[in-house]
Fold this sequence. Notes:
Belongs to the glycosyltransferase 20 family. By secondary structure, the protein is an alpha/beta fold. It has 17 helices and 17 strands. The structure holds adenosine-5'-diphosphate and 6-O-phosphono-beta-D-fructofuranose. 6-O-phosphono-beta-D-fructofuranose (F6P) binds near residues 31 and 320. Adenosine-5'-diphosphate binds next to helix 1, strand 12, strand 13 and helix 14.
Amino acid sequence: xxxxxxxxxxxxxxxxxxxxxxxxxxxxxxxxxxxxxxxxxxxxxxxxxxxxxxxxxxxxxxxxxxxxxxxxxxxxxxxxxxxxxxxxxxxxxxxxxxxxxxxxxxxxxxxxxxxxxxxxxxxxxxxxxxxxxxxxxxxxxxxxxxxxxxxxxxxxxxxxxxxxxxxxxxxxxxxxxxxxxxxxxxxxxxxxxxxxxxxxxxxxxxxxxxxxxxxxxxxxxxxxxxxxxxxxxxxxxxxxxxxxxxxxxxxxxxxxxxxxxxxxxxxxxxxxxxxxxxxxxxxxxxxxxxxxxxxxxxxxxxxxxxxxxxxxxxxxxxxxxxxxxxxxxxxxxxxxxxxxxxxxxxxxxxxxxxxxxxxxxxxxxxxxxxxxxxxxxxxxxxxxxxxxxxxxxxxxxxxxxxxxxxxxxxxxxxxxxxxxxxxxxxxxxxxxxxxxxxxxxxxxxxxxxxxxxxxxxxxxxxxxxxxxxxxxxxxxxxxxxxx
Length: 483
Ligand code: ADP
Ligand code: F6P
């Protein structure tokens, strides 16, 4: 029976070693959290990196890692520390990531990183081919594996291959600056179907293909000498029912079951019943606009001193890619900003920012989503932003206000949120004020619309639509051959 082979750099499970034992935790990040439910329900295997370098896994535990992966229908692909440095911290996160998010000043062009990127992409392609049987559908994910589709195509010309990019695709003027632009485009074009979160990313990609490789592009189809490649937008959704149900369970739980975090949040609510909690959750990444958010919050408190002691920003930042210098610098900047603002505005009984720098279990995320009155998400660039969707899905009484950056892919589908430009502090401060004063009926009205859309365009539907379109390309291919 045919199966789907999912490939992403990171597996949905993260393996670590605690006291000589393997610990398995869920991976953080939109790709892993989103795709997990599709994988769980379907007949698929998932190939990816388990989060430790080959050198970090004691030889006696290697089989154990594979066993843990297998329990979840996953295959662990081992990468050496040199490969992780050159491929993951190097080309993926010092070249492609900043370039595709328009941080050109952070973008490095290094031949060694490129060499490792090709080497590791080949390793992924070879591992896929080890598992591939005729009739299988191959689904490659994200910017770390841009060369994989064509590497598979070279060995398995008839394979059905889909590729989905979870981050923005930049405009041609930005993409063209990449020294390896031709190779990267040719790599992705090994796929039959290429998916993006938004129509804009799709358009940018098509424009680069036509201007750099000079292929014929008609509407959303690219004609290659032997095949047609389809490009389309598929905005990724969330597992809506999971978040809704988790929120309902949260409200039904007894106080004995409450987490320490929830107790602390409740304490705050009891002490200051008319105060509001503003939430932000992201990986600590310079694309997420965390420093902008804190500065905008400072601007808000400066301009609206009547809100002192009446508001608190609960900011959860998950450690991410800390071997890359810009991430370490951002960590220092955020620490300093939080310290400075807490020092500037705190009173004996109140601090304006609660800052958590760690990953949290799912239950705590639900505590935060369900308890905070406002979510403030200010990315400077973001492929989608699933946190925005998760926040709305957990608001089972339909109250709560989402303030969302127009630079997030999610903003295209979430018009009823308060949409802001993350560079405009005055606008963010005004949106915060609007959020505080928004009547309950208006919140319910906005969230009713948002929830209806999010429930309909769930992650299941996203995967279904992509797969349906991918299978359709097979018919196109047969028709192309018969011409
Ligand atoms: P990105 O993919 O860039 O990290 P998204 O907002 O699209 O950004 O996805 C982040 C995902 O990671 C969400 O599904 C969110 O629930 C999850 N997540 C974020 N913070 C944490 C955390 N502290 N602990 C566990 N999961 C988290
Ligand atoms: O959404 C972009 C992305 O890179 C995903 O590929 C991944 O799920 C997430 O961010 C986390 O990144 P990393 O795997 O580098 O921790």
